[in-house]
Amino acid sequence: MAKQQEGLTMAHTHSAHFKARAHILRLLGDQLIGNDRLAVFELVKNAYDADATRVTVTLKMESEKSSITVADNGCGMTLDQLRNGWLEIGTDAKRGDNRSAWSSRFKRVPLGEKGVGRLAACKLGDRLILTTRAKGQPEYHMRIDWAKLIDDHDYIDKVGIDILQRDEPELFMGNEIGTRIRILKLLRAEWTRGEVRALKRMLTSLTSPFHAPDSFAVQFKVPGYEEWLEELFEPEDILAQAVWEFSFGIDERGFTWNYRFNPPHRFKSLKPKEASSAPGERLEMSEDDPSWDRKKVHLDSEYLKGIGPIKGQFHVYDRRSKVLNLTGNTNQVKQFLNEQTGVRVYRDGIRVYNYGEPDDDWLGLNARRINRPALKMGTNSVIAAVHIRHSSTSELHEKTNREGFDENDCFLRFRSVMQNVVEFLDRTRREDRESLDRAIKGEASALTTGTERFEQTVSALRKTLKKHHLENELGPKLDVIEKEYDSLREVAMSAGAAGMNIVVIFHEVEREVRDLDAAIRNRLSEERIAQHARHLVQLLEGFAPLLKKNKQRRVKVSDILAHVKFLTERRFSLHEITFSCPVLTGEDVDFEVSGADNLYLGAIINLVDNAIHWCKKRRELDSQKRQMAIAIRTLPDWAEEGPCLAVIDTGPGFEIDFEDAVKPFVSTRAGGMGLGLYYARLVMESQGGAVMLADLSELDLPKVYDGAAVILRFRRK
Predict the structure, then answer these.
(1) What is the pLDDT of residues 492-528, one digit of tens each?
(2) CA 522, CA 410: separation in Å to the nearest integer?
(3) E strands of 518-658, at which residues?
(4) Lower CB count within 10 Å: N or C terminus of the chain?
(5) What is the pTM of this model?
(6) At how many degrees (to 10) do helices 450-467 and 676-686 cross?
(7) Are 102 and 113 in contact (CB under 8 A)?
């Protein structure tokens, strides 16, 4: 027994408490507030939360007597609010259930929710003087010497603050209420002209230039340096000079929008243009978003969960000198655009910093312009405001450092929605942008492709050589040039086949890898696992021809279509699309074609990919019960020039002229590159064929096929 007692271990419990050193005040101010401008910004936002309609920010730069004052006419604070609110770090007065209706006068949802905004004062200077008065209350006054407070006390709970009650107010006289905060002994001893102007622009941007909330205005004063703020454009001065205007609204009911093209008056050939949404229109989403359900095409209420309704305005500018020179203030306009452009976010009418700052491209606008700079807007050519509302269901939360939202799932969905809105705007203004380009250049529309222009140029050159009796001398050199051009075009088309189908390849291979992984994890039979592995290998081998060198040969069109079916049948199953290819069952007539079959394969897969998208889009717009179907029919005698095949779908048909659809970079599809049909056209023309659009009434088809029929015509033997 004694031995057992000797082996026993005695346990004791000791109580302990968290403690915070006084210098945490300085640490929090430095770390949570990014810079001085943001610190002033936070104090102004606190005035908004206090139901102020007017805030005056005064920056005095008098060497040792420099100061920053933020004075508002808000609701002021009572003694209890000072003690248990302003002096309590991390208070929950603006979080959770307390957040929904905190503002008593305007019912504003408070902008601050971390309870640390008042530490912005500590970021700016060593001394603070606060004076406040609430309705029916005495005036309260207190001074805080941050440096002395931190030096004289080890722990924050030992710090005492004296609050002076003034029964006879000295600042807020009569019925006046509000709060004034003066910050002395500024940590930034000097402010440059650029820094002062930057602070002015930030304070101006606090409220939306399109929708100001509840008569909330901010005034900025710099006594003795007023000239520094002269000639600063106000937002309304520049908005009228936008070439494109676009406003939109998104909620669970759909997508509404208005568009206006405002060409400079000097271009007499261009006329203003307006367009707007159709009843019940919905925003089309790009499949490039990894979080998007690829089975869907349009934005739905589920994707908006936690975001709520979104509204916005875009003013887009053309920064080319020939356009800006027409404003009469070219340099000032350029400077304003350099400083003020970007896509800003406003919640309840107040800006969420730092979206839309010159160094912020939260929507990736500039990256989109790398390949097509003329067709995509960049951050330096747009002034935009995106409006959202805060509610009890909102899942958009500001970061602790006050620089944007936490990048949670809700924010990623919000950003994706806005990226698709931008894509829609770029597609909508494409035609007008091209018209403006032609007006600037003074040229007629170029309707021919690069290949056609090259062939026309060579043909004209041969006539010139013959006229001047130089065909024997220079003709062979021209033959070499044509051969090299054809070789380069062939390489480009091979790369195009791989490039445009690369997304399809990745998705199909990834799906097969996941299936194989699931088969192994679920301990299926060896035969089932081997079956998945074989299918993955076959899929990779099936895509391989897209990457190989073009070889001219004769091949049955049924062999090409069998390859198409193998590479795409999983997608048909995934999206519940009925696929029909009668030539593979002997119901349609087979025929042979000459040319590079890998190029034909790439062209047909691109057409099928387009057809899948448009089938899904129409079903979502018309009825979820609508049957989706795609058929590939052989038409050996449809055209005199050669045999054809048709890719037919149940989509909405072409939304633009077919002549435009086969041009490069023209697309009405969200996230579309506008190269699929153009590539198919290049392939067929390079092989002596053509791409055409058929009238469905010309084809003997079941009634379900009422969308589009794209014809690939091959050359005769």
Answers:
(1) 455 454 444 444 555 555 566 667 667 767 777 877 7
(2) 32
(3) 552-556, 578-580, 592-596, 629-639, 642-649
(4) N
(5) 0.65
(6) 40
(7) no
